[in-house]
Predict the structure.
Amino acid sequence: MQRVRASLAGRATQLLLVLAFVAVAFISLIGIGASVVIVETVQDSGSAVNAAGGLRRLAHRAASVALAAALDGRTGRAEVTAAIGAFEAGLGDATLEKVLEREPGSVFASIYRGIHARWYVNLKPRLLGAPELPSESPDVLFYENLLADVDAFTAQIDALVAVLERETETGIAQLRMTLVIALGMVMVVMVAALCVIRRRVFMPLTELRDCAARIAGGDFRARSRYTGRDELGRVGSAFNAMADELATVYRDLEQRVEQKTADLMRSNRALELLYHVIARLYHAPASPQTYAETLRDLEQVLGLKGSFVCVQPKHGGVATVLSTTMGDCPVRSRSEEECSHCPGRMMPWSYRREGDFDVFLVPLRDADHLYGMMRLALPPGERLRAWQHTLVEAVSRHMGIALGISYQSERERLLALQEERSIIARELHDSLAQSLSYMKIQASLLSSALQRPERRDDASDILADMKGGINAAYRQLRELLSTFRLQMEGDFARLLGSTVEEYAGRSGMPIELEIRLGVCHLNPNQEIHVLHIIREALSNATRHARASSIRVGLFGHPDGVRVIIEDDGKGILPAAASEPHHYGLAIMGERARGLGGMLEIVPRPDGGTRVSVCFDPVARREASSPAPTPEAQ
């Protein structure tokens, strides 16, 4: 039962409208039916009035026929009988019978019965029994009485007609009243239905439209007052629930937009900070000013109470402070040995209470090594949020990479210096040292020859050899000075061209240069070795080969790089390349081995000499990459 009530309550407006239309239809049907009945009654009454009115004419005609027959002296029984028959036919008319059957107890029925009885009892016998009077002695009194009775009879018929006319007028009045009542009831039902529609349909729909327009304009406080258990009441309740949900979603969306805006602004500030940090560290990776500016920006973005950056020493001792806004590290200030047991080493990315602040310990390191520590001061109990922690990680990683690059650059400079010093020592040893050693031996021989008279003739030969050795040493010294003063500035191809032009101008012979390295690439160390080999080969060719032309080639191929210097001079014997006094060739061999290749000096088939060196620049570069030093580790 409750379910039925709930279902009916949920369709109240629909049911009311259906009831209104059913009521209008029912009233219309009742009015139409009543009108049809009244119209038929009125139509029967009208026909009866016509029939009753004809009785008066027929009664007078029967009396007139009977009187005329008497006055003419004729029998006239046939005409009288016919007139009586016509009256009786009119008296028994079907319409009059129908009215009599419909209202057997009405006034019409009593008058009709009186007329019927009077006709058959009084008038008809008298009309049939009227005397035949001669014209000279008519029975005037009989006919006067007959006419008087006929007049009284027609008066009775007039009363019957009047009754029928009144019934007709009453029926018409009833029809009019029925139509008025039906129309009034239809109007009442329609007005009631319109009121119900206005109150339960149009007004809720209008308010829902207005509320929807307000919500579309951004006013989420709009609510419908029409709520209930009917259809539009449920729609209003659903609309209000939707408005509440929209308001909640809109507020949540506004909060999320504000949060996203704040996150974007924070991300922009973090990105800007990282950009400046990277730019500063790129230009000055080891400058204290760089770290001071970086810490100042980091304090401003994160709201820190102070910051501190120190770099660990290379060979023990106290760490070096690059920048601080919170004083010295308490561990560092106690003793030099404490830095080796720094809490940041033992517990990186942790918080430590120091005085009135909680200090966050951040290591500065790259993928392999730890270079220092960064300490960030926060209020007691406060911790970095996720985005702040991510930003600190990024900054510390860039600092560690910058310190690692700085240390690596320093190591590379030391290695380059050591390599260059080794090259100088090797070249001095292979050239001047051997020449001086040879002259030292010659000086000893000269001293021995001068002390013995029998060997004085050998002294001139020894002096000549010493003079040649001194000249060779002087020449080697000049070559070494030229080599050490060579500056590797600009493009390697341009430097080779300048070298070729230098020797071509000095010797006066044409020197052809061809460079086709392709995808092969030489590092600066390999370029300097190749350039020195070419210079030494050109020096030998221009001084000793007696050539008319020289060709220098630098070619790249899948197995590496090939350097070729060849001339069309007098050539060289293979055994001559290994003679002890050919220091330039020995140095060229050392440089070729330093490149990871082998020097080859052979005669050309068409005459002249070919000097070639083949090496793999990639394999040598990977093999010569410096390993981390123990101090850096």
Summary: Confidence is low (pLDDT under 50) at residues 133-137, 622-633.
